Task: inverse folding
């Protein structure tokens, strides 16, 4: 028969869990405060006409293709748009062909069957696009089909690159969602960026501190060529891999807040959100890292409960010794609100849809990514895209 656990051991374990949760909560808050100073917010403005070549890989994007390209073609800074169809099974290719006939700045390509294999299908497609139509403008912008560039977006990105004196700028757009479940998941990538990525340390060329967002990634032509570009990428998450390659070649990469200049159409519903975001999380931190991500949010979710219990004990017993504990737990429970509020401001929700708390959605995302990794890999749009890296970080 198993012996009963002593109350002192339970208290010690609970104290350790709450102490760990407080460390994560306060650490994330401190990082958020620091990062807000370096997370430059873009303001729409005009830039040098014809300074940018746009590259977009599309697969089954019939619902997005026309609106996406129209938003870019309206920007005077755009020189041409190179769109590569990655084996679409819907009407994407026909729609893109029609757009190319309507505007001579649009060049439509297809991924050749003999293109070199890569773990990231998107990296493979973009590498094929660059090989077929090398960058001719001073800058290349890599974006996704669900992106909508607002007026002044390209000019704002060019201005930020010049002001920050970097070779590449990666932007984090506003996310437009249609339901409560998508709203809960949409803020998680930005919260992770604010709470866990040291932007000050990332201002240099150390590849260990690299962040990238393939939805909006501007890079100087010469810097891209020096890095080897998408053809040299071996990782599953191509945007972070590109940022690391740029840094290894001596190029500085800056993260910017693009919420006022760029809008991304978010996923619909919980399942699609977990699949899409889980693919990035699993590819970035691996199987054990995904489990750790879920565990951190589970621990932090204990703090509000513990704070309520502590305050009830204070009011019921009048014990002054518990006041400091209750106050500390309350501060810990409130600390993640700094990143949550900043991330929630970049989520565009329908009228009447509230912004839910992050913890339950982060827990679901981490566990979903972990289970996908355990099953042996990921599938995206009917395609197996490789096995996750099992390393914890």
Result:
């Amino acid at each position: 028969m198993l012996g009963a656990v002593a109350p002192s051991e339970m208290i010690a374990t609970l104290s350790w869990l709450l102490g760990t949760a407080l460390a994560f909560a306060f650490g994330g808050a401190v990082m958020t405060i620091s990062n807000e100073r370096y997370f430059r917010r873009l303001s729409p403005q005009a830039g040098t006409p014809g300074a940018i070549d746009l590259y977009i890989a599309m697969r089954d994007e019939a619902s997005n293709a026309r609106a996406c390209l129209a938003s870019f073609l309206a920007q005077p800074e755009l020189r041409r748009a190179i769109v590569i169809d990655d084996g679409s099974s819907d009407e994407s290719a026909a729609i893109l062909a029609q757009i190319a006939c309507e505007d001579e700045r649009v060049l439509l390509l297809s991924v050749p069957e003999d293109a070199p294999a890569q773990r990231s299908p998107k990296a493979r497609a973009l590498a094929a696009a660059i090989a077929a139509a090398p960058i001719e403008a001073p800058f290349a912008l890599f974006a996704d089909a669900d992106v909508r560039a607002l007026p002044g977006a390209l000019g704002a990105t060019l201005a930020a690159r010049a002001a920050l004196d970097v070779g590449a700028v990666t932007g984090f757009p506003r996310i437009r969602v249609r339901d409560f479940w998508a709203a809960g998941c949409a803020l998680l990538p930005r919260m992770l960026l604010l709470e866990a990525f040291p932007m000050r340390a990332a201002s240099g060329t150390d590849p260990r501190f690299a962040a990238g967002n393939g939805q909006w990634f501007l890079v100087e032509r010469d810097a891209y060529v020096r890095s080897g570009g998408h053809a040299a990428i071996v990782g599953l998450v191509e945007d972070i891999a590109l940022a690391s390659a740029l840094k290894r070649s001596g190029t500085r990469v800056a993260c910017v807040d693009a919420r006022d200049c760029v809008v991304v159409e978010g996923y619909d519903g919980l399942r699609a959100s977990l699949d899409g975001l889980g693919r990035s999380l699993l590819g970035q931190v691996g199987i054990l890292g995904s489990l750790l991500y879920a565990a951190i949010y589970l621990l932090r979710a204990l703090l509000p409960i513990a704070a309520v219990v502590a305050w009830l004990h204070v009011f019921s017993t009048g014990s002054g010794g518990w006041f400091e504990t209750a106050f500390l737990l309350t501060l810990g429970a409130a600390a993640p609100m700094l990143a949550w509020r900043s991330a929630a401001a970049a989520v565009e929700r329908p009228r009447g849809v509230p912004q839910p708390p992050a913890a339950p959605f982060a827990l679901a995302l981490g566990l979903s990514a972990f289970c996908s990794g355990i099953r042996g890999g990921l599938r995206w749009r009917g395609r197996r895209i490789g096995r996750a890296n099992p390393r914890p970080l």
